[in-house]
Amino acid sequence: MPGALLLVGGVLDYVTPAHVTLTPFYVAAPIAAAPVLSFGATLAYSVLAILLVVFELAQIAPNGPEAPVKIGTVALMGLFALFLNRMLARRDARVASARRIAETVQRAVVPEPPERVGPLRVSARYRAAQRNALIGGDLYSVRETPHGVRMLVGDVRGKGLGATEVVAVLLGAFREAAESEVELSAVAARMEDTLIRERRNRPDLESNEGFTTAVLVELSAGPPLRLRLINRGHPPPVLLVSGGEARYLTTEPALPLGLRELEEHRDLTTATDFPPGAHLLLYTDGLSEARDAAGVFYDPLARLGERRFPSPHALLDWLLDDVTAHSGGGLKDDLALLAAQSPSANAPRAPTP
């Protein structure tokens, strides 16, 4: 763009009468370079613009009264372009630093799970929205417990450090309850108790992080392997069997965690088979609410149907690429994904103690 402006100015200077001034083209070139190019490139375009103006004036009126004004105007705009370039570079550096800090905190609070948990192959991803560098409230966890492998994906309302504090509290409650509680419903109840207690002790959470949507999943020992689920106001998981068939795992409707005062609720689990080689996908609404240019929501079930993936890692890699392309290259909301694959039918069984 800056080079095109100088080229157009030079060509027009050659073909137009001497009294036609092309100064605006030379002024615009360094200004256009400042937001997108380096300091050195902006400086080069500023110097080149000044030289072209000097050359133009040398052809028509080297000693005319307008010569110092035109040269001074282009030089002043070149200096302004250099100042603008530095200011934008500092801003970008601050944003990049804030994003790195946010990602570091996010990884510390919500670490990646190991590749294998019990009999399952596991993979997880977290992607922050591109519109800001705030730490999000999405969370996931998967643990092998005395009661089977237990998984959690949730979304705390709000962003920033307040949401991250709630994420840390909820993950702590889940990890403790998952080890000690026999029933999955008791795990959900412990998490809700913790959230309500935290909100009572910190009234500032009422308006920003007052509730959390979540899906809790438990894998039975088997065989056959079975999944038990509780969904508290969260997007439904997707079960993708090895033949390519995909379906949502729907459960009894329930309010998010933290809204017990609106309705007393007793969690009921929903059970379903987890066939050999099948994938279970848990996700936050950053996936299902991603929109394309026409405003159409991303439908993970429609996109995953009839597709086969060799591993949870491959599934999440493909899914991230697909939703990013669907939304035009940038996510508008934070996104957390957790995928688990059951062992194939011919996989060797772990020895029983």
TrEMBL record:
GO molecular function terms attached to this record: phosphatase activity
Domain PPM-type phosphatase stretches: 120-342
Pfam families the record matches: SpoIIE
Keyword Coiled coil in record: no
InterPro entries assigned: Bact_Sigma-Reg, PPM-type-like_dom_sf, PPM-type_phosphatase-like_dom
Signal peptide: none
Domain of life: Bacteria
Regions crossing the membrane: 27-55, 67-84
Keyword annotations from UniProtKB, A to Z: Hydrolase, Membrane, Transmembrane, Transmembrane helix
Gene3D superfamilies named among the record's database cross-references: PPM-type phosphatase domain
Name used for this protein in its record: Serine/threonine-protein phosphatase
Organism in which the protein naturally occurs: Streptomyces sedi
Lineage of the species this protein comes from: Bacteria, Bacillati, Actinomycetota, Actinomycetes, Kitasatosporales
